[in-house]
Amino acid sequence: MSDETVGEQTRVELVPSLDHCVQTRAKQEYAATMSRILSGDESPELERRLELLKTFLEEADFSRLRRESEKYLTQGRQVRFVLSGHGGPGNWSLDMKVGESG
After folding, report:
1. Rounded mean pLDDT of the chain?
2. Where is 79: in which H helix or E strand?
3. Which residues in 7-91 belong to E strands, given as ranges?
4. What percent of the chain has pLDDT over 70?
5. Helix, strand, coil % (nearest 5) of the chain?
6. How far apart are CA 3 and CA 6, in angstroms?
7. Which of the four pLDDT bands, split at 50, 70 and 90, describes residue 20?
């Protein structure tokens, strides 16, 4: 999983598996980001990342995302979700990328 800030837009990559869905990955990233902030790293990038993940966790239709990704994961294909936005209600987008079967 990776992240970057482009301008003021934050991007977070979430890679689900058959063991851990996109919601679980987002929760893990949220917890890891919160841990870094609580450890003293209060950079604006981390704060934007935390807000983006929080909004995504509150608003996303995880049942639909699981259905969409599991059909590829069960075929042995890698799925990546790229979450981007500025944080805040409704201010995010999600792009699903499917790799070839390995």
Report:
1. 90
2. strand 77-85
3. 9-14, 77-85
4. 90
5. 45, 30, 25
6. 10
7. very high
CB atoms within 10 A of CB 89: 8
Tokens for 59, please give them. 């608003």
Judged against a pLDDT cut of 90, whether residue 102 lies above it is answered with: no
CA distance 77 to 28: 22
Residue 84, both tokens: 């981007």
> In this structure, what token pair is assigned to residue 47?
């704060």
d(CA 23, CA 17): 11
**Measured distance CA(67)–CA(86) in Å, rounded:** 26
* Domain with 48 in it: 3-101
Number of domains composing the chain:
1
DSSP class of 52: H
Instruction: Give the whole-angstrom CA distance, residue 16 versus residue 69.
Output: 8
Would you give the DSSP letter of residue 44? H
